[in-house]
Structure formats: structure tokens, C-alpha cells
Amino acid sequence: MNDIGLTPFLMLSGFLFACGVTCVAVKRNAVAVLMGVELILNSANLNLVAFARFTPAFRLEGQVFTLMVIVLAAAEAAIALAIILNFYNNHATVDVDEATDLKG
Amino acid sequence: MTSLTLPVVLFVIIATATAVSAVALVVERNVVRMAIWLLFTLIGVALLYFLLGAEFIGAAQMIVYVGGTLVLVVFGVMLTAQGPMRELRTRRIEWIVAGALGGALFVLLAVNAWQFSTPTSPDDVLPGVGPLGLSFLGVSETTPPENLAGVPADAPMRRSPVAYLLPFEIVSVHLLVVLIGAAYLARAKRRVKP
Amino acid sequence: MFDWFFATPGRLYVVGTLLPLVAFVGMLVAGAIRGLCRPFRQEGKFLATVYWALGGDQPVKGGAYLATACMALAAALGLAGLVLFLQDTTTGKDHAARWSERVDWIRLGAFDSTPPHIWEERYYDWQKQGTHHEPPPAPPTAVALELGYRIDHLTAVVFAMVTVVGTLIFVFSLGYMREETQAQVEDHQVDQHYDETNAAAHGSPSSPHGQHFRRRGRFGRFFLYLSLFCFSMLNLVIADNLFQVFVSWELVGVCSFFLIGFYYERKSAAWAANKAFIVNRVGDAGFLLGIVIAWTYLGTLNFEEMNRRVRSPVEDSHGPLAFANQLVRVQVADADTTKSESITKFRLPPKDDPTAGTHLALFPLAWETPDHYHGLGYKRSQEQEFLAPVNATINDFGAMPYWLFVVMGLGIFLGCIGKSAQVPLHTWLPDAMEGPTPVSALIHAATMVAAGVYLVGRSYALLAPEVLLVIAYIGAVTLFMSATIALVQTDIKRVLAYSTCSQLGFMMLALGMGGWVAGLLHLITHAFFKALLFLCSGSVIHSCHHEQDLRPMGGLGRKMPITAFTMLIGVLAICGAPLLSGWYSKDMILSVALAYVWLHPEHLLLFALPAVTAAMTAYYMFRLWFLAFTGQPRDAHVCEQAHESPTVMTLPLVVLALFSVAVAWGWPVWEVEASALAHVLEKAEPASVSVAFYAVKVKEHEVHRLAGGIALGAAVIGTAVAFHFFYRRSPTLAELTAPGPAWYTFLVRKWYCDEVYDATVVQPTIQLARISAAVDKRDVEEAASVETAAIAPPRYDWSTLDGLLSAVGQLMSSLGARLRAVQTGLLRFYVTALALTATVLLAMLAVLTR
Question: Which of C100, C210, C334, C779 has the fewest beta carbons under 10 Å from its own?
Fold first, then answer.
């Protein structure tokens, strides 16, 4: 395992993060934005587990927090979908560019 | 140079697959196909968890994400895709800006990651389901593993008796609240004609 | 329990001080609960029970009895403490440990710093160990506001005086304030006018015409204030530092304010209370200035430490010092600061001109090496030099500009001027007689006004010779001016008030001329006989239905013999009749004055004025007594129902009369210098007095018989004149009320002091306030008032302050309008901005960690 090292995991995590951010920034479909968010969360999780694996002091903590993030991501997805559905019911679209009711 | 051992080979294959899936997710226009690419990405990450030795996390990722969250997302797609699907196109300039931003983020994160030297790590697996579950129940690991690298044999216990009962409870309550909230938000209402 | 007391008997005094506070808090809490329960007095079950149990609508007497009991207990403790203190044979450190304690109140500076006396103990411990491997503990710098008490002979005597006089006045008040126990009190001096305006403000129908103002009795409130006052006064007396004195000083001031304004429906009382409070603030500003200077330069406010800081120690490790207990003036040795900017070198001035020094040397409180240290002196051939760091701590040599030291003394004395009603801040005291008479007796005659004299005595070592001369002259002017005014006053309490001013002037005069014992002895004796005089006048006023004018009275001696007789004793005491307490103190003051003038003939006035005033004192006191008690009633209406007061009021008179006679006695009785009380006070006299006024002290013994003769002769002359005009000729009411010549009017109008102050200070202030208000008025009011519009150009402030504030507001508003475009409401825009921020931050991180 040591022959891989920590860095490749961090690089992959960073790559996933960048992909997630780009996804959120370009997609107009609300569900697609949600998928980008999931991607970002996954990148963070990968980071946590990698550090847990390679840092003796955090062997347990990394996993514990990853589990929490997974659970919270699931909850977040449920809420976000509920919001999207509501939005769709009211506006008959899922285009986030239409959601400008809070414009200043 | 790293030798071409099995973990390295596996990592290269899985990481490439994951990264490719993620990129495909970003460039794909069709939401359903995006969901499929997301599926692949999540599975790839789960496999990396297995590779890192965190079997329980990997399994949880498979079950919760792939089996739960993704299905939820697909439901969302189906529920909002009724009627004529309007093309939601993004302008080219936005693609360029976002892509440049993402690229810059990746480069910077990579630079930062590069500065991390791998800590000398014990070559053993991460704590499995047992200690993890115990820690959630408020019982912490009491004995350090025998062969912690860099730790003298007679070193005192390193881990302070901290356990995760409280976060566990917080997450549980949070989930409950979320479920109720989701049910409330998504309840059937009269649809407004566009 | 008793062990605890006998280990540190000084705690008796702490308990005695806190007892009135206990009474105060108890009454305050009970009153607050009663007030809170009042809305439920009809229906609420438990709350109604509480309300009626705490007295209900009737003013409750229990609190007053509680307060009196607490005060009596404090008096018992004070007397016990005095006896214990006088019998205490311990000396030095043991004595200090038994009779003083101090705790930190607010600490500034190093956390582990300790006061010098604790540090000294630590040093002795270190010395006892004998090993000396480690260096001695560094002298720490304690900069802390402390809470502490220190009992010396002066404190013990004054404490006993305050508690005894206080108790007697509390008992007297039980009788005097009896009518305040009624549920409804009719105030004869407030007509329906107040009631109408008051009622109009409250929207209730006004009372029928011709009725006096009615209100609820305030029996409890009176004793509430008195208790708080006693606590504050006792705290002031036992305090061992200037800051605690200042806090108590303000507390007694505010109690005085409350009690002068006790009948606050009377306009004159409200004005008098305000006047007393504001005039005292003028003095307190000076006091505060003195405290600030002391804190800045001396680094401590503890009396004893301040004294040790400014006065040279008696000896150093090479032997006795020539400057022992003196102020040492020094001058800067070398002007160039090339060596080190943080250290200035000082040296003693040439031996033949000790006043050439521009600075005052400050001495360390604890020597770094107690075995071997140098004081200041002309021991060697070369002029001695010492170094003073700029940031000197209290354990270093230091120096302060001499003029600042003088200003400090003057500042402290200015506070005393205000509190002790000396010229030019004396105008509040006569007006303060608007309060109930027991208040006048306790606060404005016996104790609080003596606090200024007490403080001068306490901080005596801090007063430069120049300041002492100022004190002497202020005292002389005050005693003369007040006595002249008292000659012609017709209000019985005002005569006594001006006489109080005059007697306080005597005390100040004595203190300023080195008669420390004489001044403070007069403080004690005066407290007793002046309280007696005021209580007697209270008894007269009580029986004459609150008639205070002397002119309609007369012949009251037959109707109230006890009052007349005790008052005669008081009058004799204040005139300095032999063998009464006033004789001892006044003789000592006059002999000090004579000795001082003998040695410094240029200050002749300092003896002439008190000698003349001694005659005037006898005149106006006997004038008062003859007018009130002898002859025939000049106005039958006032005197026909006069009667002797109840026992609860006459008993304190008798006790106070006994004290007035015998408090200063010693053996043999006919020797002024044998007075026991004077000998007790002498033990507390600061060592600096004997050093600075050694010649005066020697001379005083030579001339005291002559001075006593002069004083007695003056008193006899004054008495004879009064006897001639007011007893043998017994003037009629018409003669007394007839307008006199110009000098008479001048004195009746009190040298026009009030008028001058009104014209120079009060009116300009009011006019300034009017103009300021006019400038700030808005359009609506301007339109209503043509006059103010003429003074202020329209909307003057609109272009200045208001305009500025509006500009700021408008700027923010337009900025917000611009920035609001940023809030597009587009989710993806936000995410992009967020990502951009994260990127920039990461880039900064990457650059910075390179």
C-alpha cells in the first residue's frame, strides 16, 4: 500500500472536487447540480479516508467522519430533491436560472 | 519510483476509470446518462475505499450512495421530466469560465497535495467494523495495535478515550428531521399551470 | 468566636461599620417587597399577607427600631474597641497585624505582585532560611486599589464619637420624627400649589383650595438614609487608603443630598439639596485631582505608604538621618540625558538653601537589600546623588515635581473645603438646614462636615508647608466671615449652621498651623456640643410647631426647662467656658495660633481673627439663648402651646450634655494640657508635625496661659454684650424685625456670597444652556418662539452635525443601491464566485507556503 502513497489519492480527490465544482457551475438542471454536489462530497470523503489510512493518529476519526458525511449526504439529497420537486410544482421547470425570486 | 505491484496497478485502473467517469458526468447533457456516469464514479470511489482498507466505508458507500441516493436522484429525474423536455443549454462562455476555474482549482489542489509527503504509515488495515461500531456506541479502542510503526512498545496509550456516541445521536436526530422535512416539502400539492 | 476577635480586635470596627449597612439593606429589602406586594393588597392571598405584615399603608416603625438597635450595638462595639485599643500593649508589627487588614479590590499590573508589607515578610522568611542559594525574592510592584482598615488612636476616638453621637441622634429622631409615622402627613410649608401641579401631571382631580399638601409618612425612609449615612461615615473613618475614603466621601455626600431633600415637596428643600450636592462636586473635582496625582506619582493610595513615600525614613543602615520625617527637595543633577534616557540623576540642593530643589524625593517602601541601604543626607563631603528611573515603582527612589505635590495637597484640601463648608464653598451648609433637625445635628454639624477636617488630619504628611499655610488662612477667613454672619441671623438653625462653619474654620486654622492635636480635639468636642445644640434647637422647633424664627420666641425656659438647661451647657461649651469640653480645645487652638504668630509676626491675622471671633461666638450663642429662653414671649401664638419634649427626646440631650461637659477632662481638670483625650490623640499625631512645627510646640507651652486668658476675656466680653442687649433690655418684636443699617443688611445677606455666585457662575451657565438649547431647536419650536429664532439662524445644525450624519446615511444608501446589482439570484453565479474565492485563497496559500 505504501508504494502508492498519499499524494495520488489527494490528486484524485482534488480532481473529483474540481469536476464537481465545474458541474455545479455549468449545469442548469437542478438534478444535475445535485449530482455535482454529490461528487464534491465524494471527493471530500476520499480525502478523509486517505488521511485516515496514512496518518496513524486519525485511523478511527477519518472513517467515523466519512460515515457521517455519507449519511448526511443522503439526507441532503432527500431534502434537495424535495425542494426541487416543490420548485418544479410551482414553476413547471427545473432550470436553476429561473429561480431568481430572491434577486436583490 | 514506485514498483508495479498489484495495488499500484489496481489504483491506476480504478482512479483512471473514476476520473473518466467524473469528466463524462460533467460534459454529458442528458440527465439520465449523467446519473449513470455518477453511478460509475461512486462505484470507483467505493473501490478505492476497499483498496485503502476501509471495507466498511466502501460497503456503506455502495449501499447508501449507489443503492439509496442514486435511486433517489433517478426518481427526481423521472418526477421532473414529465412533459416536453426543454433543452437547458449553457452558453459557451460559461463553459469556458467554469472549465478554467475547475482546472485552476485542480492545479492548485494538486500543487498542495504534491507538497504532502506520505507519512510513514503502519502497513496494516484500518480499524474494521468492530472498533468502528464500538466507537459509535461510546466504547473507545483501549489497546493500541501491537506493531504501530514508530511507536515504542512501552509507549503509553496514544488514544484518549474519545468515542462518537454523541455525533452518532446527532446524525440520527438529523436524519429523522430530514425525513420529516422531506416528506413535508414533497407532499402532493396542486400543480400550477405554467 | 471570641478568639477570633481577640486575634484581630480591629474586626470589631469592621463589624461596627457593617451593622448600619445591615439595617439599611434590611429596610431596603423590606420596603421593596412591600412595594412589590402593594398591587395585590386586596385580593392576592399570600402577597396580601406579606404586604400587611410589612406594615401595609401605615409607615412601619420596626425598621427604625432595628436601625437604632444596630446603631446602639455599633456604639457599644466602638466603645469596646476604644477600650481594647487603649489597653493594647503590642507594638510594631504585632500591633499592625492586630489592628489593620487590607485586601485587594481592583488590581492592575503584575498578577503576582504583592504589597510591600507582605513582601517584607517574604524577605525575612528568605533571610531566616540562611542558605541564600537563590536570590532574594524580587521586590514586586503592587498597583492595586485596596479595601482595608487601620485603627489608630484618631480612628478609635472618632469612631466612638460617631457611633455614640449617632445613636443618641437616632433615639432623638424616634421622638422628633414621630408624626412621620402617620399614614397621612400634612406638610404645612407646602400649599396646594404643589399638589395641583402634581395632580395635573397625574391627571387626577386637584384637592380643594386652601389645603396643605398631604403625603404618606416617611418614618422608615428617614432611618434608611440615616443608616446608610452612618455606614458610609464609619467606613470613611476606618479606611486606610485615599480611594476608600473617596468612595465613602461620595456616599456620605449622597446621603446628605437625600436628607436635605427629605421634604422634597418643598421647593426650598429641593433647591438646597441640589445646591449642597453641586457645591460639593466642585470640591470633589479637586479631591479627585489630588487622588490622581497621588496615584500617578506615589503609586499607592494607602495613607501609611504614602507617608513613607514622601517623608524621609528616620534612619538608614548607616545611622539616623538628618531629614527624618521631612519632605526632601532635590534638583536634577545633570541636565544631559546622554547616559540613559530612562534614568534621571538627582542630587540634594546646596545645604544653605534647601528650598532650591525643584523636585520632591520619593522614598522606596521596601529596600531591595534590607541589610544595607542608603537614605538621603549630607553625610559625606560630596553632594549625594541618587538615580530615579522614569518608570519608578513604589520600591525605587523616585522624584515628582514639587509644584505637583503642592497641587496634590491643594486638591485634597479642596475636597475638604467643600465637605467642611469652608470659604469659598461654604454657601451650601446654611441652606442644608432645610433637612430635618436630627439630620442637621448628625450630618451637618457633628460628623460629615467634620470629615474634611478628619481627612486633613489623616493626610497630614502629604501636605506641603505652602498648603498648610493656605489651610490656615482659609480657616481664619471662614471662621471670621461665618461668625459675622451668625451675629445677625434670626433663624435658630441658621445661627447654628454659621456657627458650625466658624468652628470648622477653627479646626482648619489649628491644623494649618501645626496644631494637629488641637484641631482634632476640637473636632471631637465640637461634635458633642454642636449635636447637643442642634438637638436642643430641634426640641424647641418641635414644641413650637416648626417655628424656626427666633424673633417671635422668648420665655421658653420656663416651659421646657430640660431643653433650656442642656442648651445652656452647649452654649457655654462652645463659648469656651472653663472646665467644659470646648474650653480645652479652643484654648489649645488659640495657644497654637498665638505661638505661631509669635514666631511668624507677618501672619498676625491668624491670631487676631480667631481672638475676635471668640468674642463674637460668645455673643451670638448667648443672643440665641436669651432670645429663645428668657424674657417674655414676643408672639403668644407661637409660644402658648410650647411644652417640654418627651423623654425619648430629652434623654439624648442630657447624655450629650454630660459628654459636652466631660469628654475632654483629664487630671487635674483645671489644666488644659492635662486633657486625657488630647493625650490619646497625641499618640496618633504624625511624626512630621513635631519635626516641622517643633518651635511652635515649644512656644505653645510658654504662651498657653496668655492665650487662654485672651480667649476667656473675649468670651466674657461677648457674653456681657449679649447679656446687656438681649437680657437686660429684652427687645421687642418690632425692634427685632426693624431693618438695620447698611452693615447689618450686608451681614444678613451673608456678605452677598450667594448673589455673587449666582451672577458669576449660575446665571452664565444657565444662559449658556439656553443658547445651546436654542441652537438645537427644530423648525416647529422655532416657529413657535420668535425669540429663539432671533438667537439662532434657522437650521444652523442642519449644515453641521445633522448634515454630516445625513451624508453618511445617504452614502450608505447609495452604496447599497449599487451593490444590490451583485445579488443576481442566479445560483450558478454564486457557485462560480464561491469557487473563484476558493481558488484565490488556495493560490495565496500556495504562494505563501512556497
Answer: C210
